[in-house]
Every structure is written in structure tokens, then in C-alpha cells.
Amino acid sequence: MTIEVLYQIYLKHPKVSTDSRKIAVGGLFFALKGPNFNGNTFAEQALREGAEYAIIDEDEYMHNERYLLVEDVLTALQQLGTYHREQSGAKIIALTGSNGKTTTKELIHSVLAQKYNTIATRGNLNNHIGVPLTLLTIRKDTEIAVIEMGANHQKEIEFLSQLALPDHGYITNFGKAHLEGFGGVEGVIKGKSELFQHLISHEKHIFWNADDPIQAEKLKNYPNKTGFSKGNIANYQILFLSADPYVKLQTEQTEINTNLPGAYNFTNAAIAVVIGLYLKVPLVKIKAGIEAYRPENNRSQILNKKGLEIYLDAYNANPSSMKAAIEAFDKIPAKSKTVLLGDMFELGDEAPMEHQAIADLTANLSFDGLYFVGKNFSRVKTDGNTFSSFEDFSDYLKEHPLEKGAVLIKGSRGMALERILDIL
Fold first, then answer.
1. Of 109, 209, 232, 269, which is least surrounded by CB within 10 A?
2. Cα-flanking dihedrals φ and ψ of residue 168, to 5°?
3. How many helices (DSSP H) and strands (DSSP E) are in the chain?
4. By the 8 A CB rule, do 326 and 423 touch?
5. What is the per-residue pLDDT across 127-144, written as a single tens digit (0 to 9) for each?
């Protein structure tokens, strides 16, 4: 079956599912394969649950005309997403980076939605499956789509760029994330920069942070760019006012109060301002969009629980984001401050050194309590408390509950440190 024929079927049934337990009634089910499952085996169930057609790639599951046979289901999904994007009149803004992608995406979406019919990547569907799924949510009236791109190895951002074919792009930063897959920090810079390379080769527009020396070097000879700076060296000057505890910034004599703690969130908000201004969103509406956004899903949240002011940033972590969160937490005004840190994943051979560096950082700051959780953190040299597992840590807290004060919770997704909220 050709993509052109499949596309005509999609236009009549423009809902897509890849999980037979979550079928979009009247839509298409793509029978993807994984390490431990074969989606073809769920095609019949998907049709029973209400899918109109099931796209499969093994002819033994072809029972009637409601089964559509393709050479490879994943490839068909990706090609369909790109084909739909090419037929659409929507402008695509792609973003990647080591830290802050999802928060930045949500801020941009909130700003642009003040003027345009805008969609954005749902949750963190930012990989080779999530990007085409997001592209397939573009509708006739969609004017702008904000597409998040994640990666943990070389050539992945290049591939996702070829799928999404962005008109604009932005890289949040280059940090110590997925060092194992990228092959060190230089590998991270090379891998994330694939977005810039794609945009430059297609003569597309780039948004950039002029205060980032890596971006400044890579884009110094590229004219089609729009950026921000705390100084006066870019298209827009965005001033950082404070983070006490939420980031406050200013441009064109207008103050904008975010709901994001930590100075590291300044650039995330600043680029949303710049993109809004570039796309002619009135500044008053940009301010409204940013101030309306409230973080959720364990990202940059401040919660109050039984006398504790909890800074919850436990969705994910790497050495760069953890350092930024710790240093920001150190600057908040509080009578007592406790840090609960969980292991950082995908660091490869750098893991022992990077975990020790975080422990050393906390030792030089004024915290009243230090708790390190996970196999790597349990091996660091520290005056704080170390636990090899979450279970050991939770058992300890049940016997030694935290008193009043501020608490930072930060760790990789696999640690799921938000579970500690029930104990706190």
C-alpha cells in the first residue's frame, strides 16, 4: 500500500492509536513492534475495540479488508506523519536540548495560543514514534505546531528533523545528558546541533540564545536567526529580574511573572517571549500566556505539604540540570533546606565521577539535610545520608520524618522520587 493511498484513508479517519488498550474509535491502529511485543497480534483486538482499520506488516494477520498491509508499520507511520505535514499549511517550530525542552515547549505553546490555533507535543512524545504521532494531530485550522525532539544518540535529531521538516528551530542548551549514548559532552553538542544543521542546510529560521557561547559560535555566520540576550547584543533584550522563588523577567518595560522556580528557567521563558514577539503576538498577550502557565507532572513544581515547602523537579535529571537545580535551591530564602537526590541515569563510565561531583557541590553549600538515593549515589563520599534503594530511603524517612522547611527533590525518571510525597 502506498503512502498516498494510506493518506486518503487517514483523512477519512484522522485518529491514530498505537496501543490496543487505548483505541481511538473510528480511527487507525498502527500495529507497532517492540522488544517484547508484536503489535500485529493485537490488531484483531483493536478492531473489536472500535478502530476502523488496523495497519499491519505480517500477512498472516490479514483477515479481511479492514487490515491494511504495509512493508513496515513504523516506517509507514513516520512517512504518513511527514506526508501529512507536507500537505498542511501549519508552521512547524522544532526544539531540542539537554534540559528544559518540555517546559519551554509548554511556554511557547501558551504564548502562541494567545493569537494562533496552536498544537504542541503531548507529554514527552518526542521520539521517532512520538514526533509522527504529533504531526498527525495537525488539523486544517492548525496554524502552528510546536514539536519537541528528544535524543540519546547521534543522528537521532537529524532523523526527527527530516520527519518534521521544521520552519523554525531552537536548542535550549547543551548539557551533560545521555553521555553514555552520545559519547561525552562533545557528542551531546554534536548530536543536538543536528537541528541547527538541518535548518541551515534548508535555509530555515533559527531562534537562539545569544548568551550561550556554543550557539554563538555555531550561528555566527548564519543570518536567518532571531535571538535574545540579557545584554544588548541580540534582536531582543530580556532582563532577568529575580527568582524569589519564581522567575521574573522584563522586556520593553514590561515585567512578566512566571510560575517557574529557579533561575535556570529564565531562558525557557525568555525564548517564549522572543518567539511570541517574532510572530507578532502582542506583548500584553505574551505576558498573559507565560503567567497563565503552571508547571505540572513533577517538573519545576512548588508544593506545600504538612509544613514543608517542596520543590519537586523529579521528572528527570542529568548532571547539568541537577547542578542548576541545587544552586538555585541554595539561593532561596528559607530557615532550613533539605536536599533529596536520586541517581542520574545514562551516564556510562562517567557515572561515578558525575555523582561524586554533585555530592561535592552540595557539601560546599549551606544545606541542613542531605539525602542521596540510588546505586551510584550510595557510593559517593559525603557527610550526608546515603541509601542504595528507594525502599531503604522511605523506611528511614518513616522513622525520621522531616521537620518544617524547604525540600528539593530531584532525580532521574527511573528513580520516581515523587513517590516520597506520600511519606513526607
1. 232
2. -135, 155
3. 15, 22
4. no
5. 999 999 999 999 999 999
Q: What are 355's three cell numbers?
A: 555523582
The C-alpha angle with vertex 396 and arms to 390 and 400, in degrees rounded to 5, equals 140
Q: Per CATH, is 301-422 categorized as 3.90.190.20?
A: yes
Closest CA to 55 of 18, 85, 23: 18
> What's the CATH number for 88-292?
3.40.1190.10
pLDDT, tens digit (0-9, with 9 covering 90-100), for 304-348: 888 899 999 998 899 999 999 999 999 988 889 999 999 999 999
Q: Is 262 annotated for ligand binding?
A: no
- 98 known member of a binding site: yes
CA distances to 38, 77, 168, 180, 388 from 45, rounded to whole Å, are 13, 20, 40, 39, 42
Over the stretch 71-95, which tens digit does the pLDDT of each residue have?
A: 999 999 999 999 999 999 999 999 9
Annotated binding residue at 251? no
Could you tell me the end-to-end alpha-carbon distance of the chain, in angstroms, rounded to an integer?
56
Q: Is 97 annotated as contributing to ligand binding? A: yes
Burial bucket for residue 231 (CB in 10 Å: 0-12, 13-18, 19+):
exposed
Q: Where are the domains of the chain?
A: 3-77, 88-292, 301-422
33 band by pLDDT with thresholds 50, 70 and 90:
very high
pTM: 0.90
Domain 3-77 fold is: 3.40.1390
Q: Is 152 annotated as a binding residue?
A: no
101 is in an annotated binding site: yes
Residue 186 host element (H or E): helix 185-192
Q: Do domains 88-292 and 301-422 have the same CATH topology?
A: no
In this predicted model, what pLDDT tens digit does every residue of 344-374 receive, in sequence order? 999 999 999 999 999 999 999 989 999 999 9
β-pair type (91-96, 337-342): unpaired
Instruction: Flag whether 39 is marked binding.
Output: no
